[in-house]
Amino acid sequence: MKFEVKNLPAGLSLDDEKGVLSGSIEEAGNYAMTFIATNEYGSMSQEFTLKVGDIIGLTPAMGWNSWNCWGLSVSQEKVMQSAQSLLDKGLADYGYSYINVDDAWEADERNADGTIATNDRFPDMKALGDWLHEQGLKFGIYSSPGERTCGLYLGSLGHEKQDAETYNSWGVDYLKYDWCGYSKVWDGLKDQTTASYVRPYLLMEEYLRNQPRDIWYSLCQYGMGDVWIWGHAVDANSWRTTGDITDSWQSVCECAFIPGVDIYPYAGPGHWNDPDMLVVGKVGWSDELRDTRLTPDEQYSHFSLWALQASVLLIGCPLDQLDDFTINLLCNNEVIAVNQDVLGKQAHRAANVDGIQVWMKQMADGSYAVGVFNMNEEEKDINLSDYYDACGIKSLKSLRDLWQQTDLKVSDTKYKLVPHACKLFRITLN
Ligand code: GLA
Questions:
Q1: Which site from 20, 66, 212, 395 is most exposed, i.e. has the minimal number of CB atoms within 10 Å?
Q2: Which residue, 234, 220, 315, 225, is CA-closest to 273?
Q3: Which of 329, 185, 245 is nearest to 65 (CA)?
Q4: 151 CB under 6 A from ligand 1?
Q5: Ligand 1 contact via 141 beta carbon (within 6 Å)
Q6: How many alpha carbons fall within 13 Å on the CB side of residue 31?
Q7: Helices 194-209 and 160-170: crossing angle, nearest 10°?
Q8: pLDDT in tens, 201-255
Q9: Structural domains of the chain ordered from first start
Q10: Which of 152, 154, 174, 178 to mutate to test the pocket of ligand 1 (most atoms within 8 A of CB)?
């Protein structure tokens, strides 16, 4: 594949093999460009606007995180294997770009000068960051406002400024900041109001935003104190809304189907709800991996809902062990486009009748993405038109099945859905 860009702004250059833009632009503003990709099968082009300004994370982050697969047994080598596979298997071409190291990279003790040190599974963080950047990828890291992380590794308490500076020196582009050990501090506080939840995140925000890098700030405190209300105020780019996900249908419901009903209005460009990482492919939270226990239909529903909810899309399986089903699930450009839509709306639940849920997301071009989910334990016949009133639809102009990438007749509204299966459509209205 070869890449070209029309209207490339001054200060930027394109690597025409990797399709990676780099450089810097002096003036804030919107820069319209056309990207063209060509290979032996033909050529495609896409309009693209680069927005230079104060807000980062204008669309949900896409990438990989080590936790759901490797848990505390993560190593630099395992991280690099997944990063290399993200490139080799073409996932990077779909927009997956963050490679995030979760807990367990830290040493037992800080250096004598108080700076954070890595354990022997991570020999050189700066080299890891440099290598990721050379590949056109971004580098994510993990810490806690507490003395210790959830895995009992070193946290940042009392060293926030130093740690932000160290992350900058390593080229970090994403920080997941996990409450965990901060509970000890919080338990001892007299004032356990919202302000007490905000305080540790505000402190790190100040040091992070002082760094000369754009660092995605990801809050992880499981939704306490209604974080979706104040996450913007600490300039968080995303915030976890619930406890940890696991590979069960019940967990997918608890992380996204249930909370999404109320919290959808709080997401928007720069600030996203995060219902936790994807549980597809192989997971295990340790050296012992197994196939996700979600059925293939549940995985379609999981990914469809994350797309509709404009959720951060972090893959949690080892990418060197990806099977064809999972690659196809993760790399449907029309489904990803729902997640990455620049209007940045999160879907709302328009209908919930007899265990059929309909979620609807407004898109920048005036169309809508609509997901229909069978939450029942038995197969159901559904008719999309039964939900038009609830969705505010008078009549359809067009109907497209996004997983199949096929246009349907607007009268093709009747389907069978097996338990926990879904249909994902993009519609335009008359
Ligand atoms: C918490 C977080 C997880 C993961 C672990 C690491 O449980 O919610 O996502 O980061 O800590 O120890």
A1: 212
A2: 220
A3: 245
A4: yes
A5: no
A6: 19
A7: 40
A8: 999 999 999 999 999 999 999 999 999 999 999 999 999 999 999 999 999 999 9
A9: 2-52 (2.60.40.10), 62-339 (3.20.20.70), 348-429 (2.60.40.1180)
A10: 178
